[in-house]
Amino acid sequence: MTTYGKPLPDPTFDTKPYWEATKKHELRVQKCSACGFLRFPPRPVCPKCQSMQAEWTRLSGKGTVYSYSVIGHAVGKGFQADVPYINVVVEPVELKGQRIPSNLTGCNPEDVKIGMAVEVYFDDVTPEITLPKFRPAGER
Q1: Which of 96, 30, 19, 105 has the alpha carbon at shortest distance from 64?
Q2: What 8-state DSSP symbol labels residue 75?
């Protein structure tokens, strides 16, 4: 068994349902039970109405690139084989004004553009952790 050589998330009480959903290959966010506001990142209180009641709702996984950075220098041994790689900030279609940081694959660094349509896929990096990543929409 190979070990994953990059940093991994450490799920907390508030984020554990998010990571459980990614393990099932689902992108889920909190939805306020009082006002219906969708929120990311997960947190205990709704920023719109201050309710502490929320449920988890599935997103389509479609979005657009809000921002990106092409990384040309490895920040650690685990990243050396990936250089150059693309860090993105994706705005899911359902989350106007809220964004998810991730990686973009399946795209040459010179081809990524702000506003580019992307879709989520899931990378099972360890038996416990699955990371949501993005690729250009329509790519497989």
Answers
A1: 96
A2: S
Distance separating alpha carbons of residues 121 and 18, to the nearest angstrom = 15
The 3-state DSSP class for residue 47 equals coil
Cβ contacts of 61 within 8 Å, gap of 6 or more: 27, 92, 119, 120, 121
Residue 90 to residue 75: CA distance in whole angstroms: 22
The pair of three-digit structure tokens given for residue 76, joined into one six-digit string? 């650690």
pTM to 2 decimal places: 0.93
Element (H, E) at 21: helix 16-23
Q: How far apart are CA 34 and CA 51, in angstroms?
A: 6
Q: Over the stretch 52-84, which tens digit does the pLDDT of each residue have?
A: 999 999 999 999 999 999 999 988 889 999 999
